[in-house]
Protein 1
Amino acid sequence: MTAKRIAILTSGGDCPGLNAVLRGTVRAANLLRWEVIGIQEGFEGLLDGGKHIRLDLTNTAGIMHLGGTILGATNKGRFISKRSGGKKATIHPDILDNASRTLSGLDVAALVVVGGDGSLATALQMHRAGFPLVGIPKTIDNDLAATELTFGFDSAVGCVADALGRLHTTAASHRRIMVLEVMGRHAGWIALHGGLSGGGDIILIPEIPFDYARITEAIQKRETEGATSHMIVVAEGAAPIDGRPTFQSMGGGDYRLGGIGDRVAREVGRRVGREARSCALGHLQRGGHPTPLDRILGTRFGVKAVELIEQGRLGTMVSYCCGQIGHVPIADAVHHMRKISSADQMVLTARSVGISFGD
Ligand code: F6P
């Protein structure tokens, strides 16, 4: 494809590494003498003539180390194609027409959509409606089946490890149980990697329903071995074997996870008879500087997206496998989650160093 001008947007929740993607895309496009238009505030910026800026070597210089996205993002709005709980929605044809007029008016040959599963589902609907586009996967949860790694994950894990380091000293001083609630709606990758690298003693993830009796036993065993404080890492989507995830209804069938850390602290503290406190790391995991790994991955993803457009491979998504950047059809990538299997080597390694999953 001899694109002269391409557009890029960042959609859904932000994460560290998005600016590296923008910078990488602009630099690769510049070598082909293509212009890049940055669509602002996610898909919403495609409507009513568009909200956009020209991205060039100058205004993308010095942004790689910054968290967030200089284009802004939204996970609400008129393009929603997936709601909480995985329910699908169809984008209204008027919205698609509106966006199509904007891109034609801007003389854009192809659009790069950077987003998570919901945004890629939107991209798929748009591609099927005739939009020339490619996707770049983004989620700190690292739970998309079609790519082994997404940028933002490593930065989030670093944040969890750092938090655990800080909690360790205060837990030890007060001989407390400390519970750290981390992100991870459907998959516990952040809890698993963060817990393992930060010295967690018990890791609770959505894929392995936990039993309070087993957690109590694990703590009692640690006490007989001389431990006087205990670190529990719990993913926000984790739930006890006989219960449901802890969430707050936001109305309209949408919900927001959060609160399992408090519950675990209360129940485990009561059962063990030791003071327990909880701390929810929340959006701290999504902010701050991306790690070098996320900067490199974001750059590689941006460069690959330009290459896919140049090769005319539209309707595809950049992906990472065994150290290499490749691509897959977006249609094969959406709605397929990568969850932790109980036989995963990381789970086995964690068990081998005495970590309990509360099962
Ligand atoms: O999917 C990424 C994620 O960070 C989840 O881990 C988390 O549950 C969710 O987004 C939070 O989204 P919001 O910022 O919209 O509350």
Protein 2
Amino acid sequence: MVLWAGPISLSGYKIRGPFSAVPQRLKSLQLRLNSQLQRGLLSAVTMETTRRRAQQTSNGKASEHAQQSAQWGRAWEVDWFSLISVVALLIFAPFIVFYFVMACDQFQCSVSEPLLQLYYGDVTLLSIWARAPSFSWSAAKIYAVWVGFQVFLYLCVPDVTHKFIPGYVGGVQDGARTPAGLINKYEINGLQCWLITHALWFANARYFHWFSPTIIFDNWIPLMWCANLLGYAVSTFAFVKAYIFPTNPEDCKFTGNVFYNYMMGIEFNPRIGKWFDFKLFFNGRPGIVAWTLINLSYMSKQQELYGTVTNSMILVNILQGIYVLDFFWNEAWYLKTIDICHDHFGWYLGWGDCVWLPYLYTLQGLYLVYHPVQLSDASALAVLLLGLLGYYIFRSTNHQKDLFRRHDGSCTIWGRKPSFIECSYRSADGGLHRSKLLTSGFWGVARHFNYTGDLMGSLAYCAACGLGHILPYFYIVYMTILLVHRCVRDEHRCSSKYGKDWKRYTDAVPYRLIPGVF
Ligand code: NDP
């Protein structure tokens, strides 16, 4: 039995403290005022509170696990390495995005050329900066209309598609239990938003001609400044909100480090009103709805520039289109993934969803505007098969876990009764919960075979661009780092949550991504 006690340490301490009679909002304000004092005491308080909470449980073993459970989720105490990484990311991530987009705009997508020309003195940082398109009010208007429209669709158009599309799960759905034991409700209407947005896009391109289908490409860098403004604004707002009016104080998580709090977030599920959920909105829209539109805009640009669209551009549009549609088709399932279930909302998600995702996940299409690659039939087929096989593994693995968890193990996986490991954990409110870890199907092959499928698909997008430049391969490098890091952090969390049961699971399924290798 394991005590899963992530956020109880601080909130549990506050609620039982001398200010327990004041309203919740004042408590969080008081929390802010006391934060300096608490920083020094935080780890002691954390351990003490966890210990006290553990002692309240009937099972004496709990206190032993409680000491470990302070490690749950994102860090409570930030080591130097994490701090330096966080500060470096906060400073350099916007420049990384700028570098890639600028390399396409000014250096024909060569990653090395800007550095070489800087080295030989052919250009200067100032001349590169001066040549980059600057902020424009017309781009700001486009961006404001875009985000405003997505907010409108998200908040004001309840889902009807689940009523007439068989098998689709939409409308109001429950999220996973939060660490404090709450279950939030979500309006799942992402597929509908995507369909309406794309129907309007095609209606415009075919009939209305309000704007050019190349509008996104034509304003790409000015739009990037707007996306940055929104990304920083929303992250800063979420940061301040967590101190002043958190949606759910029990689910807030503070460390003693302001940079870490800003980057990794404090609030778990910040909301405005009953339905505007920051995580669902910024994770799902506007970035992911835009992904396919951005690719369509690149395709239109190729057509405009060269009078033809290459098979590589079609492949990128199709494979990434499947991935995006899959995301919206399974949006209710997505509520149970790490982003929504375990990550707090900070700059990492806020800025990442506004800037990193739309700008770096679409680099292949951007590259193909500058380098229209026409693959041989055999290469195109190989890329298509790799992409589809990756998608199949990614989707089937996710589906197996979902099926298994929804039916509490009463289902068949690969035609047989599934094998699994029984485990238990405690939530912050002290409640004991049971869970099961699947060890058959793809989950018996490796502990994160869904990531392996995702990586195969990612490689296919890059391979569609041929071998002329490394820029389109940034995606597979990034996804490998992201998913390997995600494996490690998820397993760290699961190990704290399930304790010895997790060890039994890793003994049964020893590899993470590739059997026999890693
Ligand atoms: P998973 O869907 O693998 O979820 C991990 C969680 O599943 C664990 O925390 C644990 O949660 C539970 N779990 C772990 N092992 C088992 C098991 N054997 N049986 C049952 N449950 C288990 O991870 P993600 O949420 O990270 O990813 C979801 C998908 O999204 C993946 O396919 C990934 O590739 C994709 N993704 C894509 C990204 C992109 O940018 N394109 C970014 C991130 C993810 P619990 O506490 O409930 O036990």
